[in-house]
Design goal:
Layout (H helix, E strand, L loop, with lengths): L3 E3 L4 H19 L3 H5 L2 E8 L5 E3 L1 H12 L8 E12 L2 E10 L11 E11 L2 E12 L3
Parallel strand pairs: 1-4, 2-7
Antiparallel strand pairs: 2-3, 4-5, 5-6, 6-7
């Protein structure tokens, strides 16, 4: 899938922001709530596909831990970045299509997701400062 880039984003920033989204995918697919939480800023705001708002890395990590040992235990997804939008030199919006996959990475049945991540440049690299996910039926 081709990623549309809008605005001035350096090749390095594009690579690093993309790596953050792929690290989020990897954390989700390996059921690692702590690796997932580490990709958010301390005071991030996240609204999940069920409409629950989570505030801060601690709350996001705790919610992920419950979900990954419960209803999302067997869930896997591929995260395709479809658009990167420069909001400022230190903020990038990423539109991501999430496709359910099996353990081999092939498409699987289930709801798809459409997420928007606002990535902020931090001393630790690009981290998710805010975001929202919407579950969709692809049919």
């Amino acid at each position: 899938m081709t990623t549309m880039t809008v605005g001035p984003i350096t090749d390095t920033d594009r690579t690093d922001a993309t790596a953050t989204v792929h690290a989020l995918q990897d954390a989700f697919n390996t059921n690692d709530p702590h690796a997932l939480g580490a990709l958010y800023t301390d005071h991030a705001s996240w609204t999940n596909a069920a409409g629950t708002r989570l505030d801060g890395r601690t709350q996001i990590t705790a919610f992920a831990e419950k979900a990954m040992t419960g209803p999302l235990t067997d869930s896997r997804a591929r995260y395709d970045i479809v658009k990167l939008l420069s909001l400022s030199p230190d903020l990038i919006a990423a539109n991501v299509h999430q496709t359910p996959v099996d353990t081999t990475g092939h498409p699987a049945p289930g709801p798809h997701g459409r997420a928007l991540y606002i990535l902020a440049r931090t001393p630790y690299g690009w981290r998710i400062a805010a975001g929202q996910n919407t579950a969709i039926d692809p049919t």
